[in-house]
Design goal:
Distance between the termini: 41 Å
Shape: globular
Number of strands: 10
Number of helices: 1
Order of helices and strands: HEEEEEEEEEE
Strand order of the largest sheet: 1-2-3-4-5-6-7-8-9-10
Radius of gyration: 17 Å
Strand content: over 45%
Length: 153
C-alpha cells in the first residue's frame, strides 16, 4: 500500500513538473529597460511572473501606471482566447490569451467589453528573453505602441 501511494505521489509530482517545464512563458521575467521602447504615460510592467499548471495560467505583474504610481496586476485563466477577469489595471478589466505556437501568444485587454490593448508575446529561441509588442489606447484616448523586452530571472 505504501509503495502504491509513494509511486502515485511521485508520478503526480513528475507530471506537474513536466507541465511547468513545457510552458516557455513560465517563470519570473524582469524588464530590460535599455532594450525596451515604452511610451511615457503608459503602463510599464517591471516584473512579470507566469505560472502554469494543468492548463490554468496565473500572471502577476508589478510596475508603474501612467502616472508613475506603483501598480500590481493579476490575471488567472486559460490560454483559450476567452476573456478572464483582470485586477489592478485601471485600463482593463479582462484579458485573453491565444496560443499561436510554442513560443508565441496573442493577448487582448478589454475595459467594459471594449478592446483597449492588443499584443504579441514572443519567447526567444533560447528561452532567456521575451518581447512583448502592444498597441492600444490609454484611458485618456491617446494611441500608443510599446515594445517591452524582459530577461528571465
Amino acid at each position: 500500500m505504501k509503495r502504491t501511494i509513494g509511486l502515485t505521489l511521485t508520478l503526480c509530482f513528475f507530471g506537474a513538473a513536466v507541465c511547468l517545464a513545457a510552458d516557455p512563458q513560465a517563470g519570473t521575467w524582469r524588464l530590460n529597460e535599455s532594450k525596451s521602447k515604452i511610451k511615457p504615460g503608459t503602463l510599464k510592467n517591471t516584473q512579470v511572473v507566469y505560472s502554469s499548471m494543468f492548463g490554468q495560467v496565473k500572471v502577476k505583474s508589478d510596475g508603474i501606471d501612467a502616472n508613475g504610481k506603483p501598480i500590481h496586476v493579476e490575471w488567472s485563466g486559460k490560454v483559450d482566447g476567452k476573456d478572464y477577469p483582470l485586477t489592478g489595471d485601471p485600463n482593463s478589466d479582462t484579458r485573453s490569451y491565444t496560443k499561436v505556437n510554442d513560443r508565441t501568444l496573442m493577448t487582448a485587454n478589454k475595459k467594459n467589453g471594449k478592446v483597449r490593448v492588443t499584443g504579441q508575446i514572443v519567447i526567444s529561441a533560447d528561452g532567456k528573453s521575451r518581447t512583448i509588442t502592444v498597441a492600444g489606447t490609454t484611458p485618456k484616448g491617446k494611441k500608443f505602441k510599446n515594445v517591452a523586452v524582459y530577461d528571465k530571472q
